[in-house]
Amino acid sequence: MHMTSTTRIITFTLALWAGLAVLAQAKLEAGPNGGKLIGTDPDRAELVIRDDGKVAVSFLAEAGTSGDIGERLVTLFAQLETGRTEITLVREGETLVSEEPLPQPEGYTLVVQIRSKADAKPVNARVQYISHICGGCSLKEYACTCEDH
To answer: Under DSSP, is residue 29 helix (H, G, I), strand (E, B) or coil?
Structure first.
C-alpha cells in the first residue's frame, strides 16, 4: 500500500495525540517510603531524605519492595553554588545512606548516578532538594507527585 503525504501526516498526528494522551494519564508515583523514584528497571530506586538530613537510596524489587543492592554502584553529588560536592554513601543493610547530613540551606540539585555494575554506563537522575511539605500530595517537595509543578 502506498501512503500519500497527507496520509502520512494524518497518521503521524494521530500517533502523536495518542502518545500525548498516554503521557497525560501517567501519574507520578512516590516510592514505598514516600521518597522520589529514580532510575529505570532493573535499577529502579527510591531516594529518601530522612528527618536527620541524611539521604537513603534503596533499590526496588519487582513488587515495589526493597531489593538487593547487588553489584550496583551509586554516586551522589550536591550541586551547590560553590561547586559540585560528592556525598559519601555507606551501606546499611540493603540501603545506601550518606555519612553526613546534606549541606544546608536546601534548594540545590542532587545528582544521583547509578551503575548496574562497575563497568556499566551510569544512569543519572536529578532531584531538587526542597523538603517542605507539598500542599497537594502531602509529600516532601523533592518527592512531590503533583502534575502541576
So the answer is: coil
